[in-house]
Amino acid sequence: DNGYDISDYQNIMDVFGTMADVDELIKQCHARNMRIIFDLVLNHTSDQHPWFVESRSSRTNPKRDWYIWKDGKPGGLRPNNWESIFNGSAWEYDKETDQYYLHLFSRKMPDVNWECAELRRELYKITRWWLERGIDGFRIDAVSHIKKKPGLPDLPNPKQLEFVSSFDYHMNVDGIEEYLDEFKREAYGDLDVVTVGEANGVSADQAVEWVHEERGKFSMIFQFEATNLWDKTLGAIDVLAFKRIMTRWEKSLEKSGWNALFLENHDKPRIVSTWGNDKEYLRDCATAFATVYMLMMGTPFIFQGQEIGMTNVRFPSINDYPDVAARNFYNLQLANGVDHDELMKIIHMTGRDNARTPMQWDDSLNAGFSTAQQTWIGVNPNYVRINVAQQEKDETSVLNFYKRLIRLRKEHDLFTYGIYDLILSNHKQIYGYTRTSDMKRAYILTNLTGRVAQFALCQGLSSSQLVLTNLIEPVPEHKDEKSFKFRPYEIRVYIIDHQKKESHHHHHRKDEKTKRTTDQTELNTTDKSLTKLQKIASQNLEHISHHPTEQGQTDIIAALAEATRQALFEAETSKRRSITVDQEKVTPDSSEIDLENESINKKRQRQRSLVLNLENVTPAMQNDPSSLNHQCRSFTCLTSPKPSATGHHADSSSDDDENKKKTTTTAKSEEESTDTSENDVDYSVLNDESIQDFSFTSAREQAKKRILHDEEEFTLKQAKEKK
């Protein structure tokens, strides 16, 4: 699988160079104040690795237990019905020892046995060896698969399939934490290194234990909930689902963890060709997707070619695709009678090699990637118009937009430490969110579709606050604008600096003082009115007690219940009315904070706690019927069970009446969609079920539907033209 079959952990594959080259690379990186991390593969090795060669030599070999061997079932059947991630059985028969070995991936990549303490110690030693050589950390490949379900039982098979997708029995299985804790303790826990786990199957709720600042296993993990959406929505992005997933991860790790942010990797097709539109809006969609993820809380990862908008490729033959997963799929389906052309269309859409074609540096031979007559995989023919050299000269290019985006992130620590909050959560086109620190708030607004989108905010925004847009022509002047109409894939980033509102703050604090006085008066009035209610109830009770009847007892109970209900209701209402979490109210005087010398952890804790103001927020009453869904909405700190603009977006609190309005205009044409909802903070979208899919099966099914749909449209178009 393109080098993931490790045959020697302490050497370099000859086609890539030598150990001396690696030492020079590390040295030169460090000389430029750069860091370098390696890919560490610990779930499996090559079948050519000396360990496996020894292991398969006999059943009594000392390294036999370093891999997972098992007898077949009676009748020559495999040990269980697990399917390999690369299709077919996950077991390979070894004739010499008459047993099967497990391979979750290629049969050339047998899984090592993490139950074996001797093997684990050897893996830790190798990890330490590389760190001592000077590298600064690892991306740990397929780490969530190292623990298998004890006993390796068959999976349920109601459809009577030959092999069953086996993720549930080898992905993030209970007990994996013990191995990961030991790995950290023995290999890198005492060193200042970066570790990123490829953690397929780890949910947002579980991720805290994986990346917790103190007790976590890794610095970050790659999560696949978001990228797995393309399996479900091939050819279009489900913006609501994307928002739901990304927000869940952002809020889950907000207090004590850290996100690894990415859109593309070596296992997925290109983002502009799947979720975007690489024909009409290549530049626009490439820059829109860059913006939406790179300004979130976490460390952004950019996959090679993503920064120039590289697209999917359409090679004519299966022989043009080195990917073992694509070849296995092709051969199995061809044997089942599926047509070659249909299979190639599916591979064009879903194949991993879409992301693996050579980097397009310029318009020379092989896109400047190599001077060889033939590269290891074909070059995308569009390299003549999509390449680095060309985009470096074009100020409006995707590449230069990425540079502006990175510069913006580095210039404002708001994008490192600021709290993330979702806005416009129910809008089907706009992904909007804010990043808030104690002094600033950024609004990141992106249209992730190829249609015009309209929306409204509670907060008015002005041209003077606009710091980034992907439009080539200037954005029209505007001041305190709340209603917006975005072009396809348009993005804007605004930053509001609260320090520039000092006079407003003084006025606001005076208003707050007046408001508190008013609230106290209302509370006193409420107390008086409650006293009157109690007096009336008392008089009624006294009257009934002097005329005891069977009906009177019932009336007494009813009166008591009514008086109690009214008292509780009025008390709770007044308490809610008197509690307002106000961002500006809790903003400290900047002179009290030593920003220059403040530690990173202190800065992070302060900015988070100030915005959330966790200590001052009263939870919703558990006996309040309107709070039944409160626990589902675990990502908002607001007192109201249904979040509103109050609190995180208190800048607009003066528009109380206006902000309560909620209007939604249905799109009148496919080209334009409108959502002018002004209740722009609503986490109800998070309650939907998450999308979990870890194989290529769903993507291929979607591809078949897409191909059929395209063919029908083409037929209709031809018939129309003929008519």
TrEMBL record:
Pfam families: Alpha-amylase. GO terms for biological process: oligosaccharide catabolic process. Residues 1-356 form the Glycosyl hydrolase family 13 catalytic domain. Residues 672-681 have a biased composition (Acidic residues). Residues 497-530, 575-606, 640-687 are annotated as: Disordered. This is Glycosyl hydrolase family 13 catalytic domain-containing protein. Keywords: Glycosidase, Hydrolase. InterPro entries: GH (IPR017853), GH13_cat_dom (IPR006047), Glyco_hydro_b (IPR013780), O16G_dom_2 (IPR045857). It comes from the Eukaryota. Belongs to the glycosyl hydrolase 13 family. The lineage of its organism: Eukaryota, Metazoa, Spiralia, Gnathifera, Rotifera. SMART domains: Aamy. Residues 501-510 have a biased composition (Basic residues). One of its GO terms (molecular function) is alpha-amylase activity. It comes from Rotaria socialis.
